[in-house]
Write a structure and sequence with these properties.
Elements (H helix, E strand, L loop, with lengths): L12 H31 L4 H6 L5 H10 L6 H13 L13 H36 L4 H15 L2 H15 L24 H8 L2 H38 L2 H8 L4 H9 L4 H17 L2 H6 L5 H11 L2 H29 L5
Helix pairs in contact: 1-15, 5-6, 5-9, 5-12, 5-15, 6-9, 7-9, 8-9, 9-12, 12-15, 14-15
Length: about 350
């Protein structure tokens, strides 16, 4: 019997096998995540039937809805039906909104993407220079200041920063917007194309809406980015200290290169690969961990939707959110691995 091997152009057998192995791991990981969430959700004390019919409904109505939701079937059968629907692109219907979970997530997720993207930009643009600054001044006053800032940003609860930010910058100084994404006078004025209010308002040429959106998003994005900034600064400092102690740095200085060239062209270039992983994972954490900030600022995003679904026992919505979170982290890891090969030829 002749064995037939299907290969993609430019893809060696070894790389094809590695890609297949990686995709298999991704599939098993997502399936395990779904199964764990599903079975935990079914044993939680929250009753999704009561969320629909209310506590005053009679027993016959309760039993009818219980049967319609399929809760009278064994757990493995319920999970099998869920996977069957999932393979057809159906995440089910939300008990909270009455809409499909896919439509709900598509509606709320862009607001979180916008918030988290600005937060990670703030965290990276501030955290990386702070980390490099601290590493080049190890043990001195500048290093100690950066370490204290990082410790505070990493350990102080983000909701406390949020409340203090509202008190100081909104209630007292009036520099920032309050709750929501935009002033009520501009709400609904811009047509939703991407769901990203800043982009949609710029495309529509509604610069007053754009300015209002900037005013409302700046404070929550900066506060949300504080945690990432602290983490990125600490890791950057650690990576840079390792590189600055290497022999090639001493050689570069002996050759007469300026300190700027030594730090940024040599030491910093060698930590880019590690920083990519740190920033990617921090971004994923912001996308799924913005619950507290979205609650404090009444931000209509993914975190608020997930929290409300959990409180109501809306497991279809919870499962859809968990699946999206898993896909986000898996995708970010795959993208990071691909960028590794771009920035570090040794991994090719």
């Amino acid at each position: 019997m002749t064995a037939l091997t299907l290969r993609l152009p430019g893809l060696s057998a070894q790389r094809a096998a590695g890609l297949g192995h990686r995709l298999a791991i991704v599939g098993v990981t997502l399936l395990g995540l779904l199964a764990l969430t599903f079975f935990i959700g079914r044993v939680m004390p929250l009753d999704p039937v009561l969320s629909i019919v209310g506590s005053d409904a009679d027993q016959s109505t309760y039993q009818q809805v219980y049967h319609q939701l399929g809760l009278d079937r064994p757990l493995y059968v319920q999970f099998g039906y869920y996977l069957r629907d999932l393979l057809h692109g159906d995440l089910g219907r939300s008990l909270m909104t009455g809409n499909s979970v896919t439509a709900d997530i598509a509606r709320v997720f862009p607001a979180t993407i916008e918030l988290a993207t600005l937060a990670i930009l703030f965290g990276t643009c501030v955290g990386v220079p702070l980390g490099v600054f601290a590493a080049t001044r190890r043990g001195r006053a500048g290093d100690q200041v950066v370490r204290v800032i990082s410790l505070c940003g990493y350990s102080v609860p983000v909701f406390w920063f949020g409340m203090m930010g509202l008190i100081i910058f909104y209630a007292w100084l009036g520099w920032a917007g309050g709750a929501g994404r935009v002033d009520l006078a501009y709400d609904g004025l811009v047509e939703k194309r991407t769901g990203l209010l800043l982009i949609d308002s710029a495309i529509a040429g509604e610069w007053e809406v754009f300015a209002s959106a900037i005013k409302y998003i700046t404070l929550p994005a900066c506060i949300l980015g504080l945690h990432s900034m602290a983490y990125i600064a600490r890791m950057t400092r650690s990576f840079m200290l390792t590189q600055l102690s290497q022999e090639y740095i001493i050689t570069a200085r002996v050759k007469g290169l300026s300190e700027r060239e030594v730090i940024w062209n040599h030491a910093f270039r060698n930590i880019l690969v590690q920083l990519l992983t740190i920033v990617a994972l921090a971004y994923g954490g912001l996308l799924e961990g913005a619950v507290l900030i979205e609650t404090v600022f009444a931000w209509p995003g993914f975190g608020s939707y997930l929290t409300s679904s959990l409180l109501l026992g809306d497991m279809n919505a919870v499962m859809g959110c968990v699946l999206l979170i898993g896909i986000i982290f898996v995708t970010l890891n795959l993208v990071t691995d691909a960028l590794y090969q771009v920035f570090d030829p040794r991994t090719r």
